[in-house]
Amino acid sequence: MAELEKLKMYINGERVEPASGEYFETHNPYTGKPWAMVARGGDADANRAVEAAKAALENSEWADLNATQRGHLLRRLGDLAAENAERLGALEVKDNGKLIAEMGMQCQYLVQWYYYFAGLADKIEGAVLPIDKPATFTYTRQEPLGVCALITPWNSPLLLLAWKLAPALAAGNTVVVKPSEFTSASTLAFADLVEKAGFPKGVFNVITGFGKEAGEPLVVHPDVAKVAFTGGALSGAHVYQQAAASLKKVSLELGGKSPNIVFDDCNMENAVKGAISGIFAATGQTCIAGSRLLVQKGIHDEFVEKLVEFAKTAKIGDPMAVETQVGPVTTIPQYEKILSYMDVAREDGAECLLGGGKAELPECGDGWFVEPTIFAGVNNRMRIAQEEVFGPVLSIIPFSDEDEAVAIANDVIYGLASGVWTSDIRRAIEIPKRIKSGTVWVNMYRAVSYVAPFGGYKRSGLGRESGQQAIQEYQQTKTVWISTATETPNPFVMG
Length: 495
Hints:
Layout: E1 5-7, E2 9-11, E3 14-16, E4 23-28, E5 33-39, H1 43-58, H2 60-63, H3 67-83, H4 85-96, H5 100-109, H6 111-120, E6 136-144, E7 147-151, H7 157-170, E8 174-178, H8 185-197, E9 204-206, H9 211-220, E10 224-230, H10 233-244, E11 249-253, E12 259-262, H11 268-280, E13 292-296, H12 300-311, H13 332-347, E14 351-354, E15 373-376, H14 383-386, E16 393-399, H15 402-410, E17 414-415, E18 417-421, H16 425-434, E19 439-442, E20 457-458, E21 461-462, H17 467-472, E22 475-483
């Protein structure tokens, strides 16, 4: 057997071995086999990366660049990402098992974040304040926070990195990225593009490894000013708690249990497709998955019948084949978790209408596949309706009227996303007002944009990514007071 490629870390513009000298396997979810070895970072590596980022922050090569110049670098990075989108997409499929149709599109689209924040970099302005003090000139300026730790998940590594990295660099920060231990390869490959774009050494660093060993040292490091984390709610709460000890600024994009609400006046064909997109796209491995399908009772049976028939046509198999619609689960722990939730649903009394177990078709090979699964007869108290499964498992919940739909939609600890399907313009405007989630899609589902703020309510997170608001997450405001008086007033009295 050929020796597996070793993927080193990227610190201060160099590929470096982990201080421990240890590596761990990363697997292809479609084959179930390891294809590379990833550096196992720890405290020493985190310290080295933060030191490099701190030094770069104060180095004139980066510190003396104006906002327009930073924008030019980001634009160049976007161009390079576009040129390499196909290669990066294929690498992500190899590492996380999601469809090439999905990851290829993401890698093409993520360049827009770099273009957008490149243009926004020199549009962030301070203000001259109409101060109430005589003989005083007062203004504000926006400044970078410092070293930012960006911790990214395994489901969409480079897209979700772009959501953090582009505004962080546009604002003038330096960064240390810790990708998921399951999907580190594409981020390490992206480092080559950052270097080629012309960013000074130390501005962008990547350490790899496990959360406790490599991520946690970044979160608690005294020289890290900001932590941006995407992941599960429990992990996010842990990050928040740790960061609070040193009063770091934190943004968290966490889990969801999103309601997808189908009213009886919907375009049924479109709503069926929207329900499928909400849960079976990306094999359900997305924080915005519409995992709770709320269907009005008047159309419930007809809608469910059409939904099941459509879902049966989903093609499972090789994620690199363009015709494949459902790929493998990315990790073994997640694979086992999804299967366990199917058992829980049955124990709680849900009726399995489709799937409900391992997918063992010949085209699944030795990969970690589960069947697209639909449960009916679900009520909102069941675990399957309250807890994030993060897989292709749909719970159908009937409702009577608008008030009940809203009550069910809001009756979870999460508030990341939601969908509404209706032909009533009043309903299309009024229902989103009542749903407690950071995003509401009406007659569509699972759309994002670099211009649209994204984030959650309740335990789905803190802060916003994308849009103009995102760059504010990576800046701090300084107020400058200048006296123009010829004489200093009474020094014993506050002015």
